[in-house]
Design goal:
By secondary structure, the chain is an alpha+beta fold. 15% of the residues lie in helices and 42% in strands. It folds into two domains: 227 residues, no CATH class; 72 residues, no CATH class.
Amino acid sequence: MSFKAFDLANDVASLVSSINEVVSISSSIYSNDSNTKFFTNIASASAGSDLGGYWQTTFDASPTSSLSTALLDMTYGYATGSAFNLLITSTSSQNEKIKIYRQFASVLLGDPDSTFTINSTSQTECFFISIKRSLQKDEIKKGATLLILNQNSSQVSASDEGASVQFKQTVGGDYAPLKYNGTGSEIGQIWYNAGVIILSDNLAYPASVTWSGTKTLLESQSSSSINQNVDGLRRHIEKINFHNQTNLYSTVFFCRAGNSEFNYSSNPSFVDSNKRIRVTSGSNILTTRSYITTVGLYDANDNLLACAKVNKPITKSPDNEAIFRIRLDY
């Protein structure tokens, strides 16, 4: 058995590659109440009470089924400086809305007292959609997110077109704006690493469009609970399309066998009783040859860490060289 140390500057390289899947969630899934589980603040609200609800989770089937998978969470919140927080009529789940906004501001902006800026305006009221980690994988691919919204009789789309080269970075990771038709005014943001979609409170909806029940979007925000606001959101998003992304980190080792290396074998049959190299039976080639079948990677203490097999023995002799490329993914 022969050993050779790596030249770390030239023989080892690190790579990052991505695997993407196309994900499309239609309104038939999340607009269906039977696929949605309502979570309440147990500390301040009794079971079944609309007050105290923090968020809704949408599943791909009934939440009570053992085969169903959670897809995303939807919720609504506003900052303490929001006009809705100062209105006398804004009493429904008021504390919960503030806590929701502060939580997302803390995680994504690094400060619970900060506010999100959408379309160059401080957005003190927002809808939040959190995609489950099992669905988004490591992150969401930049430039591949599309939302289709309905305004009762018409539809509009919003996307992060061009975000693959125009995204921004902050403490919460990479993010980019969601714009009408990809180039129009901003209606929200997509946070790729966190898997969070943030939508402004108005979504450019006309005042005449009903949001939840008989209330308009403005009326719903000023006097409705989180559950009622999210009900409207679920019924006004026709489709959410995105590409999830799994980041594959790899280390590539180039195992180089020069012409003067690895030409001998530790197998006892390689030499005769006089320690002379045996010539292969029937061969007229008198130079030494070996056949490489396995490449092992060892640490500094000679502990075997990884083992690679070739698909067929590789002939090695003083008149040739070989390079074995070994890739470890993790």
